[in-house]
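Quick note —
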Amino acid sequence: MIGENIRAARKTQNMSQVELARRCGISRGYLLLVESGESNPTITKVGAIAGALGMTVDDLINGARKNSTEAALLYYFRLRDWPAILRLVAVEIQIEQTNEQAADGGEEQG
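Predicted structure written out below.
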């Protein structure tokens, strides 16, 4: 089950086994065993795989995807790419402000 979820999440992101293995610090051979269900990863390895996929352990176990902004933030955080993180946060703040303004404009003024 976990292996199928890992494979599905990896394929959804068009990520190769080699790339995922590199990102989470495991061998491609081990990842192949996990995805095929021949090996069960430790919770530490599940955490590393989930992080590399931009997911929580719970999401990975349950097969759910996180939203793309959270996944991107986690990925850039792991890379310590602070400028990319700041750009993503700035975009999220702008979206939130736009939504708040739209909501305020829809209220009756009296």
